[in-house]
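Sample log: Tc1-like transposase DDE domain-containing protein.
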Amino acid sequence: MEPDLKPVEPILLPGVRKVIAYFHDECCFHALDYKMTTCSKGDAWWDTEQLMKQMDHAIEIHNAIHPDATALFIFDQSSAHASLSPDALHAWEMNMSDGGKQKMRKDTIIPALNLYPEHCGKVQRMMTATGQVKGMKTVLMEMCAKCSLVCPVENERCCMARLLSHQDDFKNQESMLERKIQDASHKCIFLPKFHCELNPIEMYWRWCKYHYHQIPKKTFKESKELAKKYLDACPVKTIQQFINRSWWFMSAYGRGLTGGAAEWAVT
């Protein structure tokens, strides 16, 4: 007989907020093959702009239901989730010299790992006093970055763009998604690649699609109605078990188990 799962409220110290996790993922339900077209007057392809709007809606819902709790949004490694803002620091899109046809970049802070401590932590403006967008040469000179006179092929610091792209402020930029969530005083993390077992919503999709596939569908309308039906049909207790299973995998990995050993421990 399966144990009766009951929620256990955390015991928090004064001033510590409860953290509520939200796992994100997407799924497709296929019935018949239809040709999909996009246009400016119809449904566009899913993009970062739509993701940002959806995120605004999700944060609004959380704040209304749990005003005293911090949301923890958990995402996979989709390229859309890693999209940077239009003014992000892209070394490979910068000109060598100041001015010219290049995008305005956001100001940055010279990284703590800079070779010259006196420059670490200083704000670095990406526009000159004359109103021109700075080029790579100026940015590198301001942070006192240097390249050796002889640059072998295997040297990762062999050109301006590569040297600049390896600076911490260029390499470790936050995505638009991270910035939006943090600006709303919430948190987000990204699951490692190829580890769907860490996301309980993957098990939920599998449950829904298994039951959906048991019934033959003749029309698109019927398929759509059945998809909605089974998305709402999964019992709460089953969803709780999916979440616990993911936590068990996390616990197993945290104890040093890998691959088959972790799967054996969870099973």
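Observation: The chain has two domains: 18-32+46-83+175-266, 84-173.
Observation: The domain at 18-32+46-83+175-266 is CATH 3.30.420.10 (Nucleotidyltransferase; domain 5).
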